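Pilot study result, target chain (346 residues):
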Amino acid sequence: MVGAKRVILLGLGIALAADVSLRAVDPTAPPLPKDTLPAKLTVETPPLGLDPRLPIPADNPLTDAKVELGRKLFFDPILSADRTVACASCHLPEHGLTDSKPVAVGIRAQQGRRNAPSLFNRAYGTSFFWDGREASLEAQALRPIEDPLELGTKVDEVIARLKADAGYRARFEAAFPDGVTAQNLARAIASFERVLVIGNSRVDRFRIGEVGGLNEAERQGLWLFESRGKCWRCHAGGNLTDEQFHNTGVSWGKQPLDLGRFEVTKRDEDRGRFKTPSLRGVARTAPYMHDGSLATLEDVVEFYSRGGGANPRLDPLIAALEFSKEDVKNLAAFLRALSPIESQGK
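Predicted structure:
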């Protein structure tokens, strides 16, 4: 026991020294994000409104050890070059796993190109990032580590750091037979992201017969969503996204022009297309769109009411809706009602 206490104290000393050194490197670095998620994250049964079959890859089955390891890594600045930012710096629990900024801000306060998307319900995703450049959570997990505007380091360097850390070596060995590897780093972070699911909104309760769950404005908003607004054509299914790519013209004409999906496929028809985000928990994820250019849900509704942003590749599903001010108010109220019941009013 004496030896164990000594190891713990030694580890604490190293951690404190690391924090002092990183602040010396960049004393203006923002505070590291706090883990305010529920103490235990498991998905035995997905919440109401979601597909009850949570997609889990055969080569990375969920275990508590993987989830807890991925969670620790997600909030740890050890993944960044100068240890000043973590994955959670752009995906804060209090902002619906986004960061409340128009575009993500990474290491050395560098601005990224796009808005940080929410990570809730990405277990149901079929492609990842706004342009769909990766096809799995595991592949997605390592990208920010080597992006010079995000965490700005190299996977090999991170693996060396983790192998040099006795605590991480033990955690990896508990989660994976072969311990610390790049593949297992990706699998651990993906496992944690896979259990970040939300549902059970007042809209879901309304749809199973609890008619008092929505007030008049929210019910009118639901009607608009499903009828004249035709929002369901892109925001479909239990997760309220078709997982497809659409050109809505939100930033067309701005420089430099972001060509979205085209950057991945090089197909002309993909110019300006971006992935449809889920609407679940959308009340907390402002500002909106891939460039964070719309500040409120009312701004988003008004944008679509005008018929999006005119451009040569505008999606044929986008057309002027000419909503009244009352329509805008009601549809925004409905969107706010898509928050999980336990988080509403907080």
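One observation from the pilot: The radius of gyration is 21 Å. A full batch analysis is planned for the follow-on phase.
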